Amino acid sequence: MNAAKPDGTGGGTLLKRNLGTVYSGAMTAWASVFFLAPLLIIVVYSFLKKGLYGGVTLDFSFDAYIALKNPNIAVISVKTLLISLAATAITILIALPCGYFMARSKHQTLLLMLIIIPFWTNFLIRVYAWMNILGSNGFLNDFLLSIGFIKEHIPFLYNQNAVILVLVYMYLPYAILPLYSSIDKFDFSLLEAARDLGAATPQAILKVLLPNVRSGIYTAFLFTFIPIFGAYAVPLLVGGKDSYMLGNVIADQLTKSRNWPLASAISMVLTVVTTIGVASMLGLQKRDERRLGKHKGGKS
C-alpha cells in the first residue's frame, strides 16, 4: 500500500498529477467545442455545394474556392488588406508614445483605468457615437461651421477614412496595453547612456528603445491587425462603397445570397492569412529572443 510521504511525494504528487489532467481536460474540451468544432464545420462547408434555397448539399465540390477567382473578391481582398495595414500602423504609431508616457508616469493605475474604461461601453454604442460626431449634422461639422472654418458640410462619414479612424479608436487599447507592458520593463538608463554618448533623442529611441520592445510591438500588431482584418460592423456602419471589406462579403453571402460554401471559403482564406501572420510574428519574436540571448551570453 502506497502512503503519502512527509516530503510531499507519493500520494500527494499523484493527486496533483491527476488534478492537472482534470484541468487540462476541461480546457481541451472547451477549446474543442467552441473553437475546433466551428472551424471544422467551416472547413467542411467550404467543400460542399450550395443548396437550392440556401444551406448546403452533401456533394463534395471545389466550386466555392473556384468562385474566389472572381475579380471583385480579389479587389475587396486587397482593399481589406490595405485598410487593415493602414489602421494597424496608425494604431501602433499612436500607441507607442502613449505606452511610453504611461510607463514613465507616476499615475500608471489611473492611466490604465482610462484605457480600460471604454471596454465597459458597448461596441455599437461607441460606433454610433462616432457617427454622431462625423455625420453631416454632427458635432464636428456644426463646430467647424460655427467658427467659420468651413462654408458647407464636409462628408466625413461613409468612406475609407472614416472606417480607418473608427477602427483605430476601437482597437487602440489592444495596442497600448502590450506596448505599455513591454516598455515598463525597459531599462530607461540605456536611453540616458545613449544620449551621453552623443545620440539625439529620436536616434536613441529608434536604436535603443524600439529594438528592446519589439515583443510588445509584435503583440500589439497581432492584437490589432487580426480583428481589424475581419471587421464587419465598422465598415457596415461608417463605410461606403470604397470600404467594403471581406467581413461584409461573408455576411452578405450568408444572409442575402445564402451561399454558405462561398462564405466558408472566404472565412478559410481569412483564417489562413491570420494564421500565417501570427506564425510570422511569433517567428520574428523567437528570432529576436535568440539574438538577445546570444548577445547576453557573449557579454557574460
* Average pLDDT, all residues: 85
CATH class: Mainly Alpha
CATH level-3 fold name? MetI-like fold
Percent helix, as a range, is: over 70%
Could you state the order of secondary-structure elements as H and E? HEEHHHHHHHHHHHH
User: What's the gyration radius in Å?
Assistant: 25 Å
- The strand order across the widest sheet is 1-2
Number of strands: 2
Q: Any idea what the shape is? A: globular
What would CATH call the architecture? Orthogonal Bundle
Mind telling me the CATH superfamily name?
A: MetI-like
Number of helices: 13
Terminal CA distance reads 51 Å
Strand proportion, as a percent range, falls in: under 5%
Instruction: Provide the structure class.
Output: mainly alpha
Q: Unreliable runs, pLDDT <50, ≥5 residues?
A: none
Major sheet characteristics? 2 strands, antiparallel
Topology:
Elements: H1 11-46, E1 49-50, E2 56-57, H2 63-67, H3 71-104, H4 108-116, H5 123-134, H6 139-146, H7 160-184, H8 189-196, H9 201-212, H10 214-229, H11 233-238, H12 246-255, H13 260-299
Antiparallel strand pairs: 1-2
